[in-house]
Design brief:
The protein is mostly beta strands. The protein is 0% helix and 51% strand. The protein is built from no helices and 11 strands. The strands form 2 sheets. Strands 2, 4, 5, 6, 9, 10 and 11 form a 7-stranded mixed β-sheet that branches. A 4-stranded antiparallel β-sheet has the order 1-3-8-7, with no helix packed on it. A hairpin with a 4-residue loop joins strand 7 and strand 8.
Length: 124
């Protein structure tokens, strides 16, 4: 089992920045891909970013490309999401998740473990 705890969310003005963290415990996740997803009120959960086990390969949703950066520190069992140039449409609950299979990295149903999420609110 893997436990994930997200932190770093909050209220920020448009154009501002936040850094989300996802601390993991239990089974080590250093050999697994990780991802960030988000869910806005009244909308389905959507893919944001993913990173492979080594951190060398990343992928992003078009809506955040160039503004968000995913990274990981396997020694700390932690994954990060640096969010810059935030927009009101980035407002959502952000979730991190573990992908053990290494496939479908932008697909929610390919992820095995999930955190409880952290709220990000961007005011205009």
């Amino acid at each position: 089992q893997v436990q994930l705890v997200e932190s770093g969310g909050g209220l920020v003005q448009a154009g501002g920045s936040l850094r989300l963290s996802c601390a993991t415990s239990g089974r080590a996740v250093s050999s697994y891909a990780m991802g960030w997803f988000r869910q806005a009120p009244g909308k389905e959960r959507e893919f944001v970013a993913t990173i492979n086990w080594s951190g060398r390969n990343t992928d992003y949703a078009d809506s955040v490309k160039g503004r968000f950066t995913i990274s990981r520190d396997n020694a700390k069992n932690t994954v990060y999401l640096q969010m810059n140039s935030l927009k009101p449409e980035d407002t959502a609950v952000y979730y991190c998740a573990v992908n053990r299979g290494g496939t479908g990295l932008n697909l929610m149903n390919h992820y095995d473990y999930w955190g409880q999420g952290t709220q990000v609110t961007v005011s205009s």
